[in-house]
Amino acid sequence: MRVTQYYPIGSITMPSSWIAFIVGFIVTYLFIRLYFGKVHGARIGDLFFNVVIIWKLSVILTDFSMVIKNPLSILYFHGGTFGWILGLVVAGLWMLRQVYKEKWKRIDKWSLLLALICWQAVYQIAMALLNEGSLIVKSATIVLFVAIFVLSWWSERKKVNTVSELASVLIAVHFLVSAIQGNLLNTAFITTIFIGLFLWRIERVAAQPISRKEEVE
User: Can you give the residue ranges of every domain in the chain?
Assistant: First the structure.
């Protein structure tokens, strides 16, 4: 959904996308912490924190002269789409390192999958509710993202399907939603593509057999 509304919160006016992002993070963190436990909740919190910090600090790269003149501008500006993608890439590489280091099991992969799908679903639903637009488009957005989340949660419970398969379904669903919304190449869909590739890679890494040396240790 395109941003059409801005909301005053205290002395700050925030675009609907920021509110949707924050709500998505809070709901996702609480869901993962309650459903999977403290360790997995903390991991998701770290992932979101890393993405946001890099996104904010990337303004140094995108508008260095402004930051030099006014260092406090880092608090109010960010690196835009470039900074967001940079945050996704760096945080994704950091998470892959954790997969190698900690030798993730099934619960680790599924907690991450459900977290990312939950966040994207809540974000999209919030954007549909907070912005103006066609009732049909809003309804389709909400129904499709609720459906992919329910499918993923059901798959985790029943131990059917794989993380890679559901990541592919997520991309397909988001592509359909973007087409319905009339805006195929948007930051949210690009994020979903990164999420899909990221989850695919994590499943491949986690599936690699341990070495003989590691097995002995």
Answer: 9-216
